[in-house]
Sequence to fold (366 residues):
Amino acid sequence: MRSGNDTFAAFGLSGAPGTEAFWATAKAPAPVPDGDGWTTLFLRRGSEAASVGFESWSRPVPLRRWGDTDCWYAEVRMPARLRVTYQFLVGDAAYADPLNPVGAGGDRSIAATPDAPAQPHWPLVGAGTDVVLPLPRHRLRWSSERLGGRRTVRVHPAGGGGPVVLLLDGDDWLYLHPAMVAFDSAVASGAMPPVTLVFLPARDRKAEFGCRPGLWEAVRDELLPLVAESGVTADRDRLVVAGQSLGGLSALYAALEFPELVSRVAVQSASLWWTPGTADLTDPLGGPVGGALAARLRGRPDLSGLRVAFDVGEHETRMLPHCGLVETLAQQAGATVRVSRSASDHDRAGWRHALLRDVAWALGRD
Fold:
C-alpha cells in the first residue's frame, strides 16, 4: 500500500489520513489532471462502508478505507467538462458531502471538473454551509378541474415582475436548486429583464408531461388567470416555458400545439425520444430518433413565431441524436433556434446556467 502522504499529497492534502490534523485541512472533491480528463478524490469520514452515488453519469463507486482509520476515499476518473450531482450512500441512506460547500437540497452535493464553465448567480448551499434560502412569499392554491387535485404554486416577481416564466418541475427549482435566488441575481446584474417566476409542481410527471393537451389547457384556462388575479405583476403575453427532461418535452409540445399560448421556450435535455408507451420500456431511448415530436415536425408546421433554446448535456451520448434531429427540424420549420451543450450528463446541476441564459435569450437578450 502506498503511504497516506503519497496517495493524498497529489490532491493537495497533508497529514496522516484519519488524524485530526488531516481532517482539519481536508477538502473534497479534489480533482487533478489525468490525460484528457481528471481524477477526482472523494473523501468521507466515518466508520461504515459507503459508496459515491452519481446522478445519471456513473454507477456508484465504492469508497475504500485507509487502514483501520475513519478515512474512506475513492479516486474517480472523470471526463473533461463535467458537472455532476452526487451523494454518499451508506446502507439505505444517502447524504451530502460535508466537505463540499456546493450542494443541492441539503442531501446532495455537486462536483465539477475545473474546466467546467462557471455558473454565476447560483448560491452555495452545501451541507457545510448555514445558508437558509428564502421561498417566494406569494402562494396560490390551485384546485384544477382539468387535472384534478390541489397543488400549491409559488410565484415570485424577480426585479418587480414582468414576463411570466413558467418553471416546470417547480419544486425541484425551489428546494433542490434555488432558482428564485439565481433569477434575482441575474436580474440585478442586468443579465435578464425583470420576470415573474411561476413554480409549477408536478403531481405525476409521466402522465402530465407526456404529449397530452390537458396540462396546457389547464395552464391556459385555470393557472394563468389565477396568477393574473394574484396581484403580482405578470405579463402573460411574453410567456416563457422552461422544462427539463420530460418537462422539456412537454414545453416543446405546448409550443407546437398551443402556439397562441406558448411562443418562447427554453428546454434542457428534453425527452425527445418519447413516443406513446416508450416511457415504460426497458430501453425507452431505443425507438425512432426524435420520437413523436420529430414526426410532428416533419409535417412542417409554421413555427415562424417560435423562439426556442435547446440545451442538452454533452455527455448524454444517447440523447444527442434525438435532440439534434428535433433541433434541425424546428429550425427548418421556421423557428428561431438557439442550440448549446452543457458540461453534464442528465443532471439538473449541469442545466442551471443554461436555464438562466436561455430564458434571457428567449426574452430577446442575446
